Amino acid sequence: MTTHPNTDILPVAPLKIIAMNNCRQLGEQVSEILHNIRTSSKRTVHFSEEVRGYIQDDYLVSYHMETHHTGERHAVIDDTIRGCDLFIMTDVVNRYSAAEGTPKHGYMTPDEHIMDLKRIIAACHGTAHRINVIMPYLYAGRYNNRKNLESLDCALVLQDMIKMGITNIITFDAHEPRVQNAIPIQGIDNFPTSYQFIKAIINNEKDLSFNKDNLLIVSPDVGGMGRVVFYSSMLEVNMGMFYRRKDYSTTNDIGEHPVVAVEFLGGDITGKDVIIVDDMIDTGKSMINTALELKKRGAGKIIMVATFGLFSQGLDGMDMAYNEGLVDSLYTTNLTYCSEELLEKPYYKKVDMSEQLAELFDTINYDASFSALTDQTALIKQLLNK
Which of 4, 58, 278, 317 has its CA 20 to 30 A from that of 215? Predict the structure, then answer.
């Protein structure tokens, strides 16, 4: 992928990045790639002397959190950000990030990550020329329907950030994109990950045949059909979906309606390799149950694809599925933290998104069109030589 070719557009302001501690490693990768992009660009000769801060060895801004004896915290920005185009990166579901300054507290919850994000925004407001928030996993984005007396936390956080002066909010593969209706004037930019996944699968699965006689794309449920339709149309293979019929007249011990029947909506699976596509893996139960049902129907190789791999209940379930032959490969991005344990698993393949993030930052910094980054159809067709 390449950034916009226009060499006459001037940047909005010098670019700076605050990578919060929950995604520091990803921020360092983005900063390095951004440096490489700008030093090798045709714009370099023209801009390096005329645009302040255009090329930097490191675009990262240092900050720290100060914690008081009462447990109250506040953010302190250590470097100057005056007049800059600031990109704040955060991973609100990083369970491996300890609360800075409070070692006894242990790991941070998404609510604590969001509160620290607001502290950073508050510390920068009035100094930075523009503030952009990059939140790959959209906080509380799964809970988008108000059925009873319930809080819609994602909408509240989006509205709060806009009120605090945020210009752009960037997310990836949002569970429910319509949540942007909470801020209809401002909106959010929701970026796909399909190109990176297809590229990674092609590079790693050498024996996979991308034709309708040998491959099937499957969604674990109704909610993921939009993604499956896109993958199916791009790869020109058939698709399917599982429908779990529930008994809504009763609930089980954990408050869920029991599943009374599992139905597959699609063609014959026998002997076909299958790619299961979803936006996230939380406990992994949905993906594993889908793989089990596919194997019952005669599926061959099974590849799991999910933008976010959270594994909130650990990796034991996925290990068991791999050892029992239910899953051959698992692909997730590094948009959320990948533990060392996960990286060492024989079935795991990481999809690196740092290059796309760097190109995205570079493009936004020019207020240029990033349609090439959102509409990945042409890139995928070029990748597949179609």
Answer: 317
Report residue 67 as tokens: 């914690």
Return the ∠ at Cα 219 (arms to 215 and 221), rounded to 5°.
Answer: 155
Kindly report the number of other CB atoms within 10 A of residue 82's CB atom. 11
Lowest-confidence segment of 103-117, 151-165, 214-228, 287-301 by average pLDDT:
103-117
Domain ranges across the chain: 15-192+354-370, 194-351
Helix H or strand E encompassing 230: helix 225-235
Q: What is the pLDDT of residues 192-243, one digit of tens each?
A: 999 999 999 999 999 999 999 999 999 998 888 889 999 999 999 999 999 8
**Do the beta carbons of residue 101 and residue 33 sit within 8 Å?**
no
Domain 194-351 has CATH 3.40.50.150: no
Pick the CATH number of 15-192+354-370 from 3.30.40.10, 3.40.50.2300, 1.10.3720.10, 3.40.50.2020: 3.40.50.2020
**194-351 matches 15-192+354-370 in CATH topology:** yes
> Rounded to 5 degrees, what are φ and ψ at 332?
-140, 165
Per-residue pLDDT reduced to its tens digit, 96-123: 876 554 444 568 899 999 999 999 999 9
Q: Which of 332, 379, 383, 334 is nearest to 354 (CA)?
A: 334
Q: Is 353 left (phi over 0), alpha (psi -120 to 50) or beta?
A: alpha
